[in-house]
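Figure S7 source data.
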Amino acid sequence: MIDTVTTETESTEFQTDNLQRFIFDGIPVRGEWIHLSKSWQEVLNRRQYPQAIQNILGEMMAAAGLLAATVKIKGRLVLQIKSDGPVNLMMVECTSENTVRAFAQWEGDIADDISLEAMTGKGALAITIDVEGSKQPYQGLVGLNDDSIASMLETYFKQSEQLETRIWLAANEQSVAGLFLQQLPGENNNEEANEEDWIRLSQLAATITNEELLTLGAGTLLHRLYHEEHCRLLSLTDFNFACSCSRERVADTINLLGEADALDLVETQGEIEVACEFCNEHYHFDKVDVAQVFSANSTPELDSKTLH
Ligand SMILES: [Zn+2]
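Tokens for the predicted zinc ion complex:
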């Protein structure tokens, strides 16, 4: 067989904060590889997480990037676990501008060796796709029955999309990484050959170690796995950490409280302080700021808008 993961791609300098798509000539299987370092560091710089949460949140961050790349929409994809355990919320958001942000909420001490099940308790892993301009976001849910994020997502694709999918995820202090393989409906109707190809390609990928996922570039990794296959590297996507919170958005939230309640809060607390869960930015509104929020609200221009 022709070696199509060429030495040229292999020698390409290892670039992180990237997603690499790849395909196989003549085989209805698509693949993606993701590696995030800088954007992961941005998440960890903003909040200190217990080790067990850090691992899962990191895996979710790699997974969200992989999933976002499978949907071609303008908007955002949110991957979250909402549950009743000591870790009640873990959330990652990826936008079509390839920005990513993540955070987790928990109570009490979380042991390093706690299982995913004990950490989350009862709940669900939700995949929300919010297309810009559409009223109702799409939401897919999968129960927290499996012991890893990767296997939950494999179950989701099988149940909701009827697509065979294999996902490998890894996270450590420095980086998060993932590999994604999905069998697509074949056009050649040769189901037996397609099945054999799928099994071979996924078995080869299953030889990957977490260490390799976290330390090798896409070219080197895919060469190692698929040097006997016709594997072709497609486009590369850059990812960056970014948060969409702003002082204006916080002002909008204070506005929703109503003037009397907002002033009450300032009276009792001295100020209103709002922290963004994603980036940990703290916004402070004192009495003057709050008065401004509501005086801006009563300008004739805004009043005329609210009449419609
Ligand atoms: Zn923020």
